[in-house]
Amino acid sequence: MADEQWWYNTRTGQVEQGAKSPWSDRAGPYKTREEAEGAPARLAENSRRWSEDDSRDS
Fold it and tell me: How many structural domains compose the chain?
């Protein structure tokens, strides 16, 4: 099962099938390669939302 999942390596910018890199360098898991390829945009959007939430809490 784990080898069927896709990950985005945040250090190298590469998509990987299976948990090959250290957990600290991976985003995921994703069901498809395409979802993993979209990880940078998804991560940026999540960061933006969290920043907005943090500024509202202040």
Answer: 1
Residue 55 to residues 3, 31, 44, 52, 58, Cα–Cα distance (Å): 39, 33, 17, 5, 5
Q: Is 32 strand, coil or helix?
A: coil
pLDDT tens per residue across span 3-58 = 899 999 999 999 999 999 999 999 999 999 999 999 999 999 999 999 887 777 76
Helix (H) or strand (E) holding 58, with range, is none
Q: pTM of the predicted model, to two decimals?
A: 0.78
Please name the helix (run of DSSP H) or strand (run of DSSP E) that holds residue 14, with its range, or none.
none
The whole domain housing 47 covers 2-57
